[in-house]
Amino acid sequence: MSPSPPSTLAAIAKPALSFTIASKPFPTVTQPHIYQPTLAQRDGYGTGGQRQQSAAERLRLTVASFTLLPLRALLLLLCIASYWCITKLSGLLLPKPQHLQVIAVSGAIWSRALLFIVGFWRIKWVAVADSVSDTSSQQGPLGGIVSNHVGWVDIFVHAAHSFPAFVAKDGTQRIPVFGHFSRLLQCLYVDREKGGQGTAQMVKQRMQVTSLGQDPSQRPMLLFPEGTTSNGLHLLPFKSGAFLAGVPLQPIILEYGVQGRVSPAWESIDAARHLLLLLCEPVHTLTCYELPVYTPSSAERADPLLYAANMHSYMVSNPP
What is the pTM of this model? Predict the structure, then answer.
């Protein structure tokens, strides 16, 4: 069994815990920093990106809008078009197994290129090792990935790392270009107008099949158990949908850096304005913490709510 985290979410303050990252000591903490107000804006543009800016900042944004923004927009279009061509050609020329492999490999490269164009020049992945319990010998086939959810950038970060499938709105598959890409990711589609009926069962079945490891072309499921986005400093309570299958999961924590001007967090700002500000910012930073695989106990497999609560505590107790 995996580490035995607390079975409840009782206290915000945690006992002092010591972890190692890449064989180096991790600072001891008593209260994880992710317990912050959910929507507290932490960048220079404030709530909704509407904070009054200095003349110097307005000048910088104006210059970037006529230089950096169009350059990045052009490169993004070229990047998207190139991947479209690769997927179409491989589908015509290659057998299905090789086609699926090309999609995954080129999709990960394409996602990383897209992030580079947006300004994520360096993304640091850190393997977090639990110094108390050794889980490496307990890892079996993964059923999926669970991660905190900060904004739309998260999808491309995970795609560049493992190219997973995710749950998307039914209308996504009808959107030009992006509908095609969502099908390549083997997404599960939800009709929200019908209340998403059967979604939990579809996710459960997909994760159970993936955990058997019998189909190498099957992409792992990526789930955001918070069910919404926050500012990246707060981990909301988990919903049980990601834990119904009772299979081992890979927890990942994304921590975006903020140099003071623009946060990649998409929690209280109009999508168009957020994209504009993000593309006009020269550089963004991101550190991704890959925690040890969590293998549920028999009690957790029988009780998805317990599994969700314990995973939440586990991720909070393994802070960046």
Answer: 0.81
